[in-house]
Design goal:
By secondary structure, the chain is mainly α. The protein has seven helices and three strands; from the N terminus they run H-H-H-E-H-H-E-E-H-H.
């Protein structure tokens, strides 16, 4: 089995503090390092489309909401788990790029809806295809049974935080 940089760190702790069970450091350390590698590789794909990860998330959330591809700003920032200020900044940039449009909410005269423009829909269709292909590439080192096992384990861990 090939060793990784986290193995060196664990070995150092084992040498210096053999009384501590540092095995959680191995799991969490690897997850953290992987997250950084994955974020860089994923952002590269988004950059190819002139998007940040946050902007991609907004466009993708609108797209997967189904026709007419619109949501309230509140629904968007709750779905994406960001502050209203962060959401406003993202929406301003996307609106300036003509990828989304703010429209009055017909069911609430004080409300606004965020809607994908035709340009936004075209862009997110291409970007999401490239993103999914990139994710397949990033996970290609794992066999199908390994991916399924990883899905189950990660879901179990995530649910423990989000309950």
């Amino acid at each position: 089995m090939e060793l990784d940089p986290v193995d060196q760190i664990l070995g150092q702790w084992q040498r210096e503090r053999p009384d501590l069970d540092v095995s959680p450091m191995g799991i969490i350390g690897r997850m953290g390092r992987l997250a950084k590698h994955l974020e860089r590789a994923i952002q590269k794909t988004f950059s190819d489309f002139g998007l940040t990860a946050g902007e991609f998330d907004v466009l993708a959330t609108l797209r997967r909401s189904g026709e007419p591809y619109q949501l309230s700003p509140t629904a968007l920032f709750h779905t994406l788990m960001v502050s209203s200020g962060t959401m406003t900044h993202r929406l301003d940039r996307l609106e300036q790029a003509d990828l989304v449009r703010r429209t009055p909410d017909p069911s609430d005269r004080r409300g606004t809806l965020i809607m994908l423009t035709n340009a936004g829909l075209t862009l997110i269709e291409k970007a999401v295809e490239a993103h999914v292909a990139n994710e397949h590439r990033l996970l290609s080192v794992l066999e199908a049974p390994e991916r399924e096992a990883l899905i189950l384990l990660l879901r179990k861990l995530l649910v423990s935080f989000e309950e």
